[in-house]
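As the next step, I selected for study one protein, both as residues and as discrete backbone shape codes, as given directly below:
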Amino acid sequence: MNDEKMIQAIRNRDEYAIGAVMDTYVKLLWSIAGQILHNIGAVQDIEECVADTFIYLWEHPEKFDARRGRLKTWLSVIARTQAINRCREIVKRNTVSLEETACIEQMGVVDTVLQAETRRTLATAINALDEEEREILLRRYYYDQKPREIAFALSMSVKQVDNRLYQTKRKLREMLTRQGDLYGFL
């Protein structure tokens, strides 16, 4: 069946005709939409562009003019347009406005300030500990030494190190809670 007869059958709502067009051109249209949406859209976006092309044909068969070109070319142009529109939609959806960017940047500044304040508060609390508590705590959490390594370095048993760590963390937690800072740190 030639292009004009195929379009006439689609105008007459012949489902066989639209099915035949779909079978004939689906791979071509998939390829066209896929090239445009490559690395931007998902497989679903490509599928929708191809489906939208066939829906457009079904709803507007009168817009095809055999004197201006072949059905294959016309469908290719429609698929390309659908894919470009989808691409624009995806880019627009994923774009962050300047106002949002400024807000995000300000939040980053606030986070940085809060982190610095938290570090200062924690350092003050750690410095208030006695020397042995501070050394065990720093060895474990700053230098990432295991309790066995700490026990060896300080001539203590592993059980003693574990007990001191527990007691020191509890003491720090109480100090910080009294100050109202660092909720949930320890």
In short: Confidence is low (pLDDT under 50) at residues 181-186. The chain has two domains: 3-94, 98-179. The CA atoms of residues 80 and 145 lie 61 Å apart.
